[in-house]
Design goal:
Blueprint: H1 2-29, E1 33-35, H2 48-52, E2 57-58, E3 62-66, E4 75-77, H3 79-84, E5 98-102, E6 107-112, E7 125-131, H4 169-196, E8 205-208
Parallel strand pairs: 1-3, 2-7, 5-8
Antiparallel strand pairs: 3-5, 4-6, 6-7
Protein name: Phytocyanin domain-containing protein
InterPro entries: Cupredoxin, Phytocyanin-like, Phytocyanin_dom
Subcellular location: Membrane
Length: 209
Amino acid sequence: MASSVRVFVAITLIAAIAISSFAIGAMAGSNLEYMVGDENGWSVGTDYQAWAQGKEFYVGDLLVFKYREGAHNVHQVDEASFIQCAPPTTSAPLTSGNDAIKLRQPGNNYFLCSIDSHCATGNLKLMVTVLPQVPAPPNTIFPFLPAPPIPDDLPQVPAPPYNLPHFSAAGHARFDYFAWIVAACVVLVMIPVSSGFLRDGLPIKVYDY
């Protein structure tokens, strides 16, 4: 009984470490979703350059533009069109009111609304600087590094005798009880922690440019 409990505890601990390693790696390599304007959404009168200031955008991140359908639209344009607040005639606007654009190109990315004078007088435009995607860090929990070489001239020192402690039947019972508690706590803690790194997808259409 005691040996089976010890095996169960060992397996549980190994599984917990593996889940943590996977979750941390997924979080480090995952892309982020930004709600443009936060609670203001995509609306006239919001300072979007102030909103973007201090944020780091990477290739693969999502910009989500939320607005009342029909009130605005979203164009991704070049710098000249951005300055003039006039998208090219070939540019097809996004109009769903819940548009998500995946950032594909590093450098400056430009977005604007072409309805009426929302861009020119309502400041309904956004420029973000996109950085190249950062690779996920290597797994440092089990690096499996080679052992350093051992010199040949080290003196041979005999190991001191070690006597394993002897457990009585009552001691074994206490150990079994404690082992089950440890295993249960590890499982209860690791499941919500690891699942917290995984986020649900947005109920939106993602546009690739």
